[in-house]
Amino acid sequence: MKIIDLKTNRMTCPLGFQLGRPRLSFIVTDTGGTALTSMRVEVALDAAMLQVVYDSGESRQVDSIAWELPLDLQPCTRYYWRVSGRADNGDNATSDVTWFETAKMGQPWQARWITPQFDKDTHPVIFRDIEAPENIGQIRIYGVGLGVYELYWDGQKVGDEYLMPGLMAYDAWIQYQTYAIPHVGPGRHRVAFALGNGWYKGKFGLSKAIGVYGDRMACLAEVHLIHDDGTRTIVGTGPDWQATRSPVVSSSIYDGEERDATRDLSGVSGVTGIDLGFDRLEERLSPPLVIHERLQPVEIIRTPAGETVLDMGQNMVGWLEFTTR
User: Fold this and answer.
1) Fewest C-beta in 10 Å: which of 126, 143, 213, 217?
2) Helix or strand (DSSP H, E) at 127
3) How many CB atoms lie within 10 A of CB 145?
4) In 3D, which of 164, 240, 147 has the Cα closest to residue 200?
5) At CA 191, angle to CA 190 and CA 197, rounded to 5?
C-alpha cells in the first residue's frame, strides 16, 4: 500500500498562495483493500517531522479528497505534512513528507511602491544590490510588478512563470507572489524587476483602451534574508533602488513586444515613490502560467514573389503554447 500525490488546496507544494483553512488530499494505491478505515495527519515545522504543531491521531473520519486542516496558520512559514492510513484489509502505509508555505498574510509591508524616473512608456528594470552575510540560510522575496513583470536574481530569471501577476481587477485586488531563492553564498547579489505594460497599463479589452487601471509601471517588494537562527533582515523597495532601461521598446498583451538589441542600457536613473496603497494586496490565487510546448516550423517556404512563409504543420497555435499547471 502506498499513499501518494499529496496536495494542498489541489496544488503540489504551494508557495505563498491564499490558503484559508487548507484542504489536504492524497491518493492510495497498491492495495487490495477497498477503502480506508482510518487515517492520521501530522504537520510539523521541519522536514524531519520533529517540531510537530498538529497531530490528528488515528481517526476514523476519513477524507482523502478535501480534509480540512484545523490549524491557525502563521505568516511566512513553511509547514511539512504527511499522512498515514489503514485499509479495510489491514494494509497500512505512511506517505512521504510534503509541504506548503504561507505568504505575508496580514503582516504590514516594510516597503514602498516605486516607479522609475523615466517617461511612463519607457520599459524599465528596477533593481538593487543586496549584501548577504555568511549566516544566511534562506531568502524569500514577496513582491509584485505592474503591469506584468519578471523577477531576476543575479541576472537569472527566477522561476518558470510568465505574464505575472496575471489578469485581475487591479482596482479591487492585486495578488503578490512569493519566491524562494536557492541558497546563495555571502557577498553582493542583485534583485531586479523587469516591467511591461500588461493588462494594467497597456491595451485592454475589445476597445483596446490604454491605461485602464494605471498609467505608470511600478513594483513593490520585500527581500527577506533569513539567518540561520531564524531571524530576518528585510530589504524593501524604496528610494535607494535604481532603474535602467530594458531592451524592450514596446510591449502589449495583444501585439507582442519589440526589442532593440543595440540599445544602450548602461545609464542608471533613480526611482520615485508612487501612492498605490496596500489595501488591495492579497496573497496569490492564480495558478502558474508556464510554457507548455515550443513549436518549431516544419518547413520554410519561399514563394515566387520572394516572400518567406513558416509552415507550422497542423498546429497553428504559434511559437509558444501556454498552460496553467
Assistant:
1) 213
2) strand 124-132
3) 25
4) 147
5) 135
* Cβ-Cβ contacts under 8 Å for 25 (sequence gap 6 or more): 5, 6, 7, 10, 64, 65, 66, 67
178 membership: H or E segment, kind and range: strand 174-181
Find out whether the peptide bond into 147 is cis, omega within 30 degrees of 0.
Answer: yes
Coarse DSSP helix, strand, coil percentages of the chain, rounded to the nearest 5 percent: 0, 50, 50
Which segments of 29-146 does DSSP mark as H helices, in order? none
Q: What is the predicted pLDDT for the residue at 145?
A: 98
Enumerate residues 6+ apart whose C-beta is below 8 A from 241. Answer: 114, 126, 127, 128, 271
Q: Which residues contact 222 (CB under 8 A, 6 or more apart)?
A: 104, 109, 110, 111, 141, 142, 143, 234, 235, 236, 237
State yes or no: pLDDT of 305 exceeds 90: no
Sequence-distant (≥ 6) Cβ neighbours of residue 176 within 8 angstroms: 16, 103, 104, 142, 143, 144, 165, 220, 281, 282, 283, 284
Output DSSP code: residue 288. Answer: P
Place of cell 511602491: 113
For residue 125, the tally of other CB atoms under 10 A from its CB is 20
CB 223 within 8 Å of CB 234: yes
Which residues neighbour 236 within 8 Å (Cβ) at sequence distance 6 or greater? 109, 110, 111, 112, 221, 222, 223
Residue by residue, DSSP assigns 191-220 as EEEEEE-HHHHS-BTTTTBS-SS-SS-EEE
Q: How confident is the model at residue 306 (pLDDT cuts 50, 70, 90)?
A: confident
CA distance 272 to 245: 15
CA dihedral of 114, 119, 121, 126, whole degrees rounded to 10: -40
Segment 228-252 shows an average pLDDT of: 95
137/38 Cα distance (integer angstroms) = 38
In angstroms, the Cα distances linking 244 to 103, 114, 241 are 29, 14, 11
Mean pLDDT of 102-109: 96
